[in-house]
Predict the structure.
Amino acid sequence: MTTPENELLPGTRRALLHRIAVAQSEGRAPSLVAAVVRGGETVWTGARTSVDGHAPDADVQYRIGSITKTFTAVLVMRLRDEGLLDLVDPLEKHLPGTGAGEATIAELLAHTGGLAAESPAPWWERTPGSLRPELADVLGDRPLLHPVGRRHHYSNPGYSVLGALVEELRGAPWEDVLRSEVLEPLGLERTSGHPQAPHAGGWAVHPWADVMLPEPTEDLGRMAPAGQLWSTAGDLARFAVFLAKGDDRVLSAASVAEMRTPAAPAEPDDVAAGSAYGLGMQVQYRDGRLLVGHGGSLPGFLASLTISVADDLAAVVLANCTSGPPVSAAAADLVRIVAEAEPRIPEPWRPLPEVDRAVLELAGHWYWGTTPYALRLSVDGGVSLGPLTGVGRRSRFRPNGDGTWTGLDGYFAGELLRAVRRPDGVVDHLDLGSFVFVRQPYDEGASVPGGVDPEGWRGIR
C-alpha cells in the first residue's frame, strides 16, 4: 500500500516497466520480478514472464545467492554490538583451529582475509553440502591464498566461516539465529533457507538457442551463510529499508551505516569502475550517485538489491536464470529512473530548537594558512568544517559533551576539534589534530605555529 504522496507518476511507472521488460527480453529470462522502495515503503512492483498469465508477484520466492552474505554480516555486527566480539579480533580468538585464524572478523566481512574464492572441488553451488560437512572441507588444505588484510579477494568460504562463528557464539544453527534475530523482527516472513511455495524454478537458458534446462537446487550445508537464502521482492524491499535506516530491534542506524562504508582496499579495476566493498555490502558510484547493496547468483537464479541512501530509494530485481539479464544494472537503472523523474522532496527547513552561544560564537569563516574554511552548526548538535570553495578536507564532527568534537568522516575522522581560548576568554584559534584555524589568514594576534613575519603582508618591492 502506498500513500498518495509516495505514489509514482504514470510516466515513471511506464519507464520502470519498460526497463524490466528490456531486461527480461534481451536477457532471455524465464521470469523477472522487481520492486522499488521510496520513503520507507514499496511504491512499485513489476514482473515479466515467458508464460502467459503467470507473471510472478512480489510474494514469489527466488533464490538470492550472495545477498545472503549481507544477512550473515548483520548477525556478526549484532555480536559486535553486544560486546561478544570486536571486529579487530582475530578469528582464532573465537573459532580456533580453522587454519585461517590470523584473519580478523572485519577482514572476513570485507573479503580481505586472504581466503580462497571458492571451496575445494567439486563446485559447491551444484553439489550437496553433505560433501563438505566440516569447515576443513570448506577451507581445504590451503585456506590462505593472499597475505591477510592486503587485498580484496572475494571469498565464499570466508562467509561460511562467519556463519560458523555465529553458531559458535550463539550456540544454535545459523539459520535459526537468522530467523529469530533478523527475519522475524523485520517481518521477513517469506525469506527462508529452503524454498516455500510459491517459488520460482531455476533454469539455464542455452546461449545459442531459445531452449532451457532445469538447474539443480542444492542444500549448501556449511556454505549456507554465503548463499543459501530464498526471498521475495517484497521481503528484500523491507530489508532495503532496514539497511538504509537501521532498526534498533536488529541493528542501529550507526551500525548499518558502518556496514555501508568501504572497508577493503580496492583493486585497480575496482577504482576505475567506482566500486568498493564494506562489511557485507557492495558499494558503487554509478551515474553520479552512491549505491550500496549486494548482488547474488546461484545456478538458476540472479538477484540484486540496490540502495541510494541519499535519494531515499532502493530497487530489487530477481530472475530465475543462471545468466543473461544484468540484474544489478537494471536495479541501478530503476533507482536512477525514479530519482531523475521524481527527485526527492527535501524536508522543510526548521531553525534549531536551541543553541549553545559558545558554539554559535565559533560559526563562520576560519583560515587554515591562506585557505578559507567555514564552520557550520548542524541540526544534530554537531558541527561541520570544510573549505568555502572547491575541493578540500571536510568533515562532520559530533560533540563530546566537554566543549570538544570528534571527527566522523573524511580526513579528520577520529581527530579532536577544540577551541583554544586566551586568558580573557576570547577564542584564539581552533585546534584540529594540531592544525590551527584562525579568523584571519596568518592572524598576527593568534598562536600560529612558527609565528608570523613581523613585517606582515606586503607586495613586490
